[in-house]
Every structure is written in structure tokens, then in C-alpha cells.
Amino acid sequence: MRPLTDNPVSSPEDDTFRFGPYVDVLHNAVEQATPLPLTVGVFGSWGAGKSSFLQLWQRRFEATRTRTIWFNPWKYDRKVEVWAALLHTILSEMEQGDDTLRKKAKRLAKAATWLSVRAGLGAAAALGTGGVIKSEQVDQMLQDLAQEDSEQYRQVNRFELDFADAVRDFVGEDGRLVVFVDDLDRCTPESAMTVLESLKLFLAQSQCVFVLALDLDVLAAVATNKFDEALKGAPSDVVSGMAYLDKIVQLPFFLPDVGFDTLQEAFKPYVSELGDDPFFWDLLRRGLGVNPRRLKRYINVFNMALAVFQAHGTQALSREFRLQLAVLLIIRTRHRAFFHTLTSDPESWRRLTAFYERAQGNPTVRLEDRHLLATRLHPYVDDSALEGLLTHGGAERVQPPAAETVLSMISTLRNAAGPDEI
Fold it and tell me: Do the beta carbons of residue 155 and residue 112 sit within 8 Å?
């Protein structure tokens, strides 16, 4: 078996999701944006391909004079102040310039570290400085704070203008610095919010384009929770986290949905035996939707489970067996409660499927026959998604396997995918 990896793509040749035209549109818009700074939001749900989109876009800048920096905030989350790590990541790149720029970067890094120290981070603040400020220097700074506070306050108050001046030296009078911030929604809510706020507090005068990849709904909910108490009683459009993000992000871009046919074409070479089976892909379309990461994980687990069965068996696995395993893995992925029911009562698959078949198009049967089912199956009587999966194909649907086969499949899936609770 050849597993699918979850590594983002960076080369146009590997752009199986066909993001290229959208990258071009956004790239051309940002190239013409003036005045700066500009904050771009690339919005998409978990596993939708945001990192790939950003890396393809960063690749587009390689043919231009535009400088780019990549920042992964979740690497610093719970270790240092993430906003400070963002600043120091940028400043450490500037330190590679001439002596004048290096001195400016170090002075700005010292001011940013001072803010971190004042926030109570102590020597840990050095972790976020990218090596510009060493740990022993931070200890000395703690001793010098009382003497230097007035000077540091002056530097902090000028930080925004001094940073803008350093960026101008770094990229040139007419240049721009593009900072890609990936996986912001993987941080703790508090860290994510401080990064957003730092864009306004410290960087609002610079020749920068900040590109934020995040799940809009997640960050909007975080912002709503943050300001809910402080703005209690205010109009809903003021309290809304979405309204807050509108003030941060000037150019929103919603990642295009990757069509299922595109995913099928990209993943088909990785599927054991059933790669050319339309019924198999119809099951996945119905049961899993179009999330690329979810489909990748599903295919890897499915292939691993098949490999385990083949390693222990003496006969070739039938198409029906493979499809039954495919359905069971969808159940495990998307209908976890019913999967747990099957672990203790594997006959439930057959009983519930028979009920669905009798009840389809007949509300009276659905109402009257539910009492014939075991009580533990009552929660699934009106589950249209599960019903659609178990009855998909009508007369050609996947037949429920025997109870002992269900238990054997469950055991193998646990070997391939880990405990049921994960």
C-alpha cells in the first residue's frame, strides 16, 4: 500500500486541487494594493487545503522582488507570547541585512522582548526572539528594568514607526513584505486573539501584507466569547466576533470547495482494488463529503485494514467484503455512536437496515415498527444520514455482513486506526 500524506503542496505541478487560478486572482489583487499594510484572510475549514494554498501563493512571489516570511504560530503556543514570536520571526530575517538594519532589528527585538518580560515571561521570553536576544541577556534585562523603564517605554511607544522604518529598509522604498501566518486557528483562543491584535497595535504603519489562514467560524466564535461580557447589552452587530474580524481583515478570501470528482481523480491511484469502482466512490461522497484531509485519512486506514486481512487470510477478498469494510469505516468515522453499538451488538447493522428498508417512503411503518427495534437502536430511527448510507444503492446496496464478520472487521480497524475513542 502507498499511503497518502498530509503534507501541503508547494509546486504548481502538484496542485491536484486546482487552486492555481484562485492563487493568481488573489496574487494580482494584492500586488496592486496600496497603501499598505493590508491583512488578507484565507478562510477555510479544517483540512480544506489552506496550507497548500498559502505555499502555492508563496511560490508565486519567488519570481518577484517581494520578500516573504512564513510563520507557524502554533509552534510557539503555550511556550511564549505568540505575538512576540511573530515580531521576532520578522526581525530575525531583518538581522540578515546590513549593519544599519541589523542594529534596528536588534533594538526593536529588545523592545518586543521587554514587553514580553513585562507580561511575566521572564527568561522564557528568549525562546521567542529567534536568537536576536539571548537568554542571559533577558536575565540582565530583568535587573535593568527599573533603571531603563523610561527609555524602554519610549522605544515601545515608537515601536510602530520604528518597525515601519526597518521594513522600508528591508524591502526598499516601493517594496513590500508578505508575512504568511498559517494555522492560526490551531492556537489557543487567547494566543490567536493576541496575534490579531498585534497587527493593529504594532504593525499598522508598515509596508506589509499579512496573510492569515484560518477557520472563520472558529475565530469568530473566539472573538465573540472574548468580548461578550465587556459588550453585554450592545447591538448584536457590535458584539459579533465576525464584526471584530471585519476590522482586522481588509481582504477576505474564502477557499474554493474542492469538488469530489477532483478529489476522486487525485486519490484514486492510492485506493487498493476499488479505485475504479464507481459504487465505492459514491459511498465516500455520501458518507464523508468533500473534506480532503478526512478522505486522505479514510483511504489510508481502509488500505491498512485490507492489508491486514490479506496478510492473515488464505483467500482473495471479494468486492462485497471490501465494500462492507468501506461502509463500516464510514460508520466509525461519521457515526461513532452506532459504531459503538455494533461492538456489543453486531446484528444491529442487519436489524437497522431492515427497518430502514421497510420504513422508506412509509411514515406509518416508521412510527409503528420502531417498537420492534431494541431500545438502543431508537436514536438511529430518524438518522437520515445513517439511513442513506446503509440503504445506498437500493437493490444493489451493500448487504450487512454476518455478526462474526462485523466483529472481525471492528478488530482489524482498531489495529489500523487505533482505539475507538480517538
Answer: no
| DSSP string of 120-186, one letter each residue | T-GGGGGGGGTTSS-HHHHHHHHHHHHHHHHHHHHHHHTHHHHHHHHHHHHH-TT--EEEEE--GGG
The per-residue pLDDT for 137 is 59
Residue type, 50: K
Angle at 417 between CA 411 and CA 422, to 5 degrees: 105
User: Which residue segments constitute the domains of the chain, with CATH numbers given?
Assistant: 12-254 (3.40.50.300), 260-417 (no CATH)
Q: Are the CB atoms for 23 and 192 separated by under 8 Å?
A: no
Helix (H) or strand (E) holding 383: none
342-356 pLDDT per residue, tens: 999 999 999 999 999
Amino acid identity for residue 303 in this structure: N
> What's the confidence (pLDDT) of residue 384?
94
Largest CA distance in the chain: 83
What is the rounded average pLDDT for all residues in the chain?
A: 84
Residue 106 to residue 123: CA distance in whole angstroms: 17
Residue where the block lists cell 466509525: 332
Strands across the sheet containing 38-43: 67-71, 177-181, 208-214, 38-43, 251-254
pLDDT of the residue at 128: 45
Residue 123 has pLDDT above 50, yes or no: no
Residue 161 grid coordinates: 514607526
Pairwise CA distance, residues 219 & 226, whole Å: 10
Mean pLDDT of 171-186: 90
